[in-house]
Design a protein that fits this description.
Elements: H1 2-17, H2 21-29, H3 36-47, H4 68-80, H5 86-93, H6 97-106
Helix pairs in contact: 1-2, 1-3, 4-5
Length: about 110
C-alpha cells in the first residue's frame, strides 16, 4: 500500500510539472508501476484539483459477514436440515437473503 501512495505522490508531482502521466511513473517504478488506466485516473483527479493521495473509503461486505455468532447460527440451522432453501434459512436466522449469501461467501 505504501508503494501505491508513493506512486500517487509521483503522479501528483508530475501533473503539477506538466509531465507525461505514464512515462514518468513507469520510468521511476518500472515493472512495479500502477496500470496505465489507474495512472491516468489519478493524474486527472489531481488535474481536477484533488489534493489527497489517499483512497476514498469504499463499502465492503456487511459486518454481519465477520460475525462468528451469525455464522454459527446459520451453520446450526443448515446442519439441522440440509434441504432448507436460502429463503427458509434467512427467515429462521433473521437475515435477508442478500446478507446470508455474503455470510456463506465468507466461509
Amino acid at each position: 500500500m505504501t508503494e501505491r501512495l508513493e506512486q500517487r505522490y509521483c503522479i501528483k508531482f508530475c501533473q503539477k510539472l506538466g509531465d507525461s502521466q505514464v512515462e514518468t511513473t513507469h520510468t521511476v517504478f518500472g515493472d512495479d508501476a500502477m496500470g496505465i488506466t489507474q495512472i491516468k485516473e489519478w493524474y486527472n483527479r489531481f488535474k481536477d484539483g484533488r489534493t489527497s493521495v489517499e483512497s476514498e473509503p469504499r463499502s465492503s461486505r456487511p459486518s454481519t459477514c465477520r460475525n462468528d455468532q451469525v455464522t454459527a447460527k446459520v451453520n446450526a440451522v443448515v446442519m439441522r436440515d440440509l434441504r432448507l432453501t436460502i429463503r427458509e434459512i434467512a427467515e429462521e436466522v433473521g437475515l435477508s437473503t442478500r446478507i446470508l449469501f455474503s455470510v456463506s461467501l465468507c466461509q
